[in-house]
């Protein structure tokens, strides 16, 4: 055994490293299997997707993706035979099931709604959060602690508890089923998280930077823009990911407040199940595509995300 | 460049008074140092001159203009921070040019000015480097560059050498003074390090608990401390104090300390009976067996050219700086002879220095120069 002092960190032994590794692998498998299952199902045919025992090896098919992007109607074989030759892969696959493509599904517009609402609300929450965090960090705000607690408390209520009042309010205001309404709502929920996270990061940036800039002839806003903001990028990126994940995944408010034009992907995907039997491959295809943006965003900003988890405790 | 005049300046944070009725004038082109222990109000005073804090009362005049309540950016001053505050996302060139950018100066002119400044500070080879990779001394030079590039009315520096290694610090003290001699910029420099203050300053203000204890040249402050605090704060080791009682009459030339008669500079005022203190710099003590003032050697610190000898007397330990050659053993009894012309007298209660002949010399000399 190595001798340790108060300041030294004990180097992990080989055995503990192996045990830790095993635990991490086991946990990773448990987490990743459902995702792999969804990914695999999206490439199965509907019969394969409900086969028992489940098929691990199967002939991949894009039928799920065809079904996701289209709406179909059932037709008699005579009618289908009377049509000309199939124009696309999806056309052909659909006809094999005695159906013809009636038109595009709502998935693309719903997905676009999700993008607009999630990124829009993330931008607003981070923008407002950065300014308020800066204010709380640098100025003597009367009752600052109480205000900060109030801001945090807005996040404590479960969405379902406030869903009905918000639903009634939104109906009166004409915000029901609008992208603006959803952006406002998600901004309101996320701004508390943004203020708290960003305050930690901004507290870590010494005041001397703005003071130096202000003495050198800049206004406070210019000093903030040119000296504080560039150094807060890590915190801003981390906060943006957290806000985006929330807004992207949110289901309860979206299910209640959106039904048509502003519906986001999460409440839309389950509705696929109902169309023409339980179409699991189409649901799985929708889920897979839905996961892509958040996955890309997280991978791109993973360093900032890790720093964000330490809540600004570590500075470069 | 301009003169800085501070009148009745006061700053309170709630109940805590950080600066109390400060008055001083920094003349055009002077290197002025505010010296004091941490929490004495020196940095607060500096920040008020800069406009980073607003005073509770009093006035600040820059070149005759009242700037007391003006914004920092409207005062035309430059500030060097203790931690330099170099912008980590900019390279050296951009850091130095940053104040000029605020003035909307054309980029070609910024380029020339930045390069001139860098050459002056001998950092022109670093211009395109990132500031995060720089050594302490070079960071300091970049911070100075950012201050002088603008040619402001005055420079304010808040312990700019505080974070440097001793080696760099000595080098920078020399460089700063040399730079000041070349550009003659009015400078206010805050430090708690008396070595920095003594070696750079034209004038020093010694502060304690928000009050300026003494304002004067390094020589005045060392030779004629106005209060016991100043006497104790300046000098290494600091001034020794020996208690004595009774009052003093105008014209007195002798006092009695521990039963021994000690000649002192002629007293110039009457002092009512009370506790008094005799102040003696360590280098004004000699060992002389004929002296009635006696003590026993307690310990020695050998410094090469001199040695510091701690002597235990009836009134506690006093330290003497004597030539290194003298051989002494712990426990030896010695007599202490004091250089009478250099002694200070204090009232113990208020800590105030008693006016004596040493102050005459000062006023005479001032009269001659004036």
UniProtKB/TrEMBL annotation, chain A:
Bilayer topology reads: Multi-pass membrane protein
This protein's UniProt keywords: Cell membrane, Membrane, Transmembrane, Transmembrane helix, Transport
The protein's matches in InterPro entries, at most eight in alphabetical order, are given as: BP-dep_ABC_trans_perm, MetI-like, MetI-like_sf
| One Pfam short name | BPD_transp_1
- What Gene3D superfamilies would the database entry show? MetI-like
Q: Where are the transmembrane segments?
A: 20-40, 115-136, 148-170, 182-202, 223-248, 280-301
Domain spans labelled ABC transmembrane type-1:
111-301
Q: Chief location of this protein?
A: membrane
Question: SUPFAM superfamilies annotated for this entry?
Answer: MetI-like
As for subcellular location, the record says: Cell membrane
Which family is it part of?
Belongs to the binding-protein-dependent transport system permease family.
**Stored PANTHER family:** ABC TRANSPORTER PERMEASE PROTEIN (PTHR32243:SF52), MALTOSE TRANSPORT SYSTEM PERMEASE-RELATED (PTHR32243)
- Its protein name is Carbohydrate ABC transporter permease
Automatic annotation (TrEMBL), chain B:
Q: GO terms for molecular function, please?
A: ATP binding
Domain (ABC transporter) spans 4-234
Q: Does the keyword Transport apply?
A: yes
Entry annotated with the keyword DNA-binding: no
Q: Which PROSITE patterns match?
A: ABC_TRANSPORTER_1, ABC_TRANSPORTER_2
Top-level division of the source organism's lineage: Bacteria
Q: Which UniProt keywords apply?
A: ATP-binding, Cell membrane, Membrane, Nucleotide-binding, Translocase, Transport
The entry sums up its family as follows:
Belongs to the ABC transporter superfamily.
| Designated name of the protein | ABC transporter ATP-binding protein
């Amino acid at each position: 055994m190595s001798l340790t002092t108060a300041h030294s960190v004990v180097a992990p032994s080989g055995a503990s490293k192996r045990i830790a590794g095993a635990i991490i692998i086991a946990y990773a498998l448990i987490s990743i299997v459902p995702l792999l299952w969804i990914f695999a199902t999206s490439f199965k045919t509907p019969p394969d997707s409900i086969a028992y025992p489940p098929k691990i090896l199967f002939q991949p098919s894009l039928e799920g993706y065809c079904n996701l992007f289209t709406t179909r109607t059932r037709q008699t074989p005579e009618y289908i035979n009377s049509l000309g030759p199939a124009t696309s892969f999806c056309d052909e696959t659909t006809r094999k099931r005695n159906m013809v493509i009636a038109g595009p599904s709502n998935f693309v517009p719903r997905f676009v709604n999700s993008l607009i609402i999630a990124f829009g609300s993330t931008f607003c929450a981070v923008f407002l959060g950065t300014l308020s965090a800066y204010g709380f960090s640098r100025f003597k705000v009367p009752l600052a602690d109480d205000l900060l607690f109030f801001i945090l408390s807005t996040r404590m209520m479960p969405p379902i508890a406030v869903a009905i009042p918000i639903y009634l309010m939104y109906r009166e205001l004409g915000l029901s089923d609008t992208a603006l309404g959803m952006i406002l709502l998600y901004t309101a929920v996320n701004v508390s998280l943004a203020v708290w996270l960003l305050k930690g990061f901004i507290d870590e940036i010494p005041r001397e930077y703005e003071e130096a800039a202000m003495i050198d002839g800049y206004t406070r806003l210019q000093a903030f823009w040119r000296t504080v903001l560039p150094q807060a990028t890590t915190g801003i990126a981390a906060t943006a990911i957290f806000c985006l994940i929330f807004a992207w995944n949110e289901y309860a408010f979206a299910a209640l407040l959106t039904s048509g034009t502003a519906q986001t992907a999460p409440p839309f995907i389950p509705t696929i199940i109902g169309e023409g039997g339980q179409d699991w491959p189409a649901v799985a295809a929708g889920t897979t595509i839905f996961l892509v943006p958040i996955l890309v965003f997280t991978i791109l900003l993973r360093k900032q995300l890790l720093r964000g988890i330490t809540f600004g405790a570590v500075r470069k | 460049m301009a003169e800085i005049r501070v009148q009745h300046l006061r700053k309170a944070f709630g109940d805590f008074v950080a600066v109390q009725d400060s008055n001083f004038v920094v003349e055009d082109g002077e290197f002025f140092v505010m010296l004091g222990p941490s929490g004495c109000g020196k940095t607060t005073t500096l920040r008020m001159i800069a406009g980073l804090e607003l005073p509770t009362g009093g006035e600040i005049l820059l070149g005759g203009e009242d700037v007391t309540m003006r914004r920092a950016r409207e005062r035309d001053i430059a500030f060097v921070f203790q931690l330099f505050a170099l912008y980590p996302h900019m390279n050296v060139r951009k850091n130095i040019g940053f104040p000029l950018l605020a003035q909307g100066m054309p980029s070609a002119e910024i380029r020339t000015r930045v390069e001139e400044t860098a050459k002056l500070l001998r950092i022109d080879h670093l211009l395109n480097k990132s500031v995060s990779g720089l050594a302490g001394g070079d960071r300091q030079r970049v911070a100075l560059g950012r201050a002088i590039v603008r040619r402001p009315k005055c420079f304010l520096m808040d312990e700019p050498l505080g974070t440097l290694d001793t080696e760099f610090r000595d080098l920078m003290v020399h460089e700063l003074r040399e730079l000041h001699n070349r550009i003659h910029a009015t400078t206010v420099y805050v430090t708690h390090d008396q070595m920095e203050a003594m070696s750079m300053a034209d004038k020093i203000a010694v502060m304690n608990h928000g009050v300026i204890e003494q304002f004067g040249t390094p020589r005045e402050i060392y030779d004629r401390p106005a209060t016991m605090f100043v006497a104790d704060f300046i000098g290494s080791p600091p001034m020794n104090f020996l208690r004595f009682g009774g009052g003093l009459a105008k014209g007195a030339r002798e006092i009695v300390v521990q039963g021994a008669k000690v000649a002192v500079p002629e007293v110039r005022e009457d002092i009512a009976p009370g506790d008094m203190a005799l102040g003696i710099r360590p280098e004004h003590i000699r060992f002389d067996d004929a002296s009635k003032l006696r003590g026993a050697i307690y310990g020695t610190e050998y410094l090469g050219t001199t040695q510091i000898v701690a002597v235990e007397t009836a009134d506690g330990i006093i330290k003497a700086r004597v030539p290194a050659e003298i051989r002494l053993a712990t426990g030896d009894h010695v007599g202490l002879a004091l250089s009478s012309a250099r002694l200070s007298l204090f009232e113990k209660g208020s800590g105030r220095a008693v006016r004596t002949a040493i102050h005459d010399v000062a006023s005479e000399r001032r009269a001659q120069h004036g």
